[in-house]
Amino acid sequence: LTTTQNPTATQTPPSAPTFSVSNPATGEVVAQVPKLDDAGVAALVDRARAAQPAWAEAGFKERAGLMLDLRSWLVHERRKVAQALMDEGGKTFEDALVEITYTCEALGFWARQAQRCLRDERMRPTTPLLFGRSVVVRWAPRGVIGVIAPWNYPLVLGFGDAIPALMAGNGVVLKPSSVTPLSSQAVIEDGMPAVGFPRDVCLLATGPGHTGSALVDSADMIMFTGSTEVGKGIAQRAAQRLIPVSLELGGKDPMIVLSDADLHRAVEVAVTGGLMNSGQTCMSVERIYVEEPVYDDFVKIMADKVSSLRMGPPASPGTVDIGSMTGPGQSEIVDAHVRDAVQKGARVLTGGRRRDGSGDFYEPTVLVDVDHSMACMTEETFGPTLPVMKVRDAEEALRLANDSPYGLNSSVFTRDLDRGEQIARRIDAGNACVNDALTNYFELRAPFGGWKQSGLGGRHGEEGIRKYCKAQTVLVTRFAPPRDPLGYPRTRVTSKLLEATLVMLYGRRRRRR
Ligand code: NAD
Predict the structure, then answer these.
(1) What's the CA-to-centroid distance between 231 and ligand 1, angstroms?
(2) What is the model's pLDDT at position 485?
(3) Ligand 1 center to 186 CA (angstroms)
(4) What tens digit of pLDDT does each residue of 190-203 get?
(5) Scanning 11, 370, 390, 483, which has its CA 20 to 30 A from the CA of 54?
(6) For atom 39 of ligand 1, which residue has the closest CA?
(7) What mean pLDDT is reported for the chain?
(8) Adjacency order of strands within the sheet including 171-175
(9) Which atom, in ligand 1's list, is nearest to the CA of 230?
(10) Protein residue with least CA distance to atom 43, ligand 1
């Protein structure tokens, strides 16, 4: 393998078009980044495609070693990478650390588990029809995977998918959001060459949505994380080339709090789960249903806690709880949801407005007296709002929790763990937690995927790496009769034999008790 001595990716001439990246917490432009057009993306995919066979040939051990080296680099350079995440996203130091921690976890997990998930499966045939044969299923890399990521968690949602794709022996072209390309740039252009990744196996395609479309037109598979609307468009475009897509899309995750719950724990989780990364988490707690007897207490504890949070531009560790909004125009959506709720009778207990001055900040907000006529309970808000609705009982909470086009994550709070699990199983979502939220994402062995409009396919688990492969089934005939029962010419004897075999194998009636 030829290793890279210098930056791999977007080696664009100085005259090539660029776009600017701004820090949303200050409004300052922090970088200029290449803006790739169709030809630029196609050239990157060609380079990754040329590098991929040797990468696949290198084997799991070699790739795993590089992943572990990249993890060490990431830990060593954590402050630098965290700064890039803070600069591009306006997120707090702690929210940046969450991203780095998950990425380290993913690097180690897939380094250890990829070979197990993708080893050849030899099987003895399950049917006497294949007497004398053996079958082996193997997992071949697809080629070049296009990973398209959103702006809310650039590392988690870019590298979280690029790592298993690479471990499976694919090349990767990663397109980060044009809002947040800097952290991905640091890992691909600084980290990977520094630890000896081979040239061109993982390249960076920076640019707007159009750059993503060009990737859909040239890669062998698309792993997309982002909005449901864009995801549907990508699926349609990919269908023209008949390439697979895996989609992780929007959510409107419900939390149900039963009257026997530990309220302090429930509030703690709701506030972290709802406000982490300024509420811009696909699986953040977006709506809360609380049983009547404990509703007032829950709301009071929550309002007290939320009103004490410190919001401001990301600074040194431990100084700020809530950073800025990241997505351009996201504050307007949040504000529209709050205004809509208030107009329809909701009350704001704390927060409820954009902060004046420089930077794009929205105050962490608790809304009560909400219902499903309001956008804050039915549409993805993707901001620091915690709308809390009073419900009669668990059945009403379940009905409302399932009254959504989305089905990503969900949670139930109760001291009765069996009941909690039963209720969790009745929520129409790909993921459900009892007495927790978000943390399930760290179990990389379990599949994570959205139901309904929240996605197609999933990440994590065996499927999280096998999807980057083509399954090939190889059948080997070890011994066979001199004459094939279906061979030509067909005779009365062979036909009778076939018929008798059919009756013998499947003709017995099922015994009824
Ligand atoms: P987005 O859909 O606007 O953009 C996502 C990515 O797609 C960006 O890189 C963007 O440049 C690119 N893109 C835009 N148009 C494209 C096109 N036509 N063809 C190809 N690529 C295109 O999403 P966003 O605003 O960056 O992120 C927020 C959304 O992502 C929210 O809806 C959130 O719920 C969702 N999300 C889902 C998950 C999950 O795991 N299910 C995780 C995080 C975010």
Answers:
(1) 7
(2) 84
(3) 21
(4) 999 999 999 999 99
(5) 11
(6) 248
(7) 95
(8) 202-204, 171-175, 144-148, 221-225, 245-248, 455-456
(9) 2
(10) 282
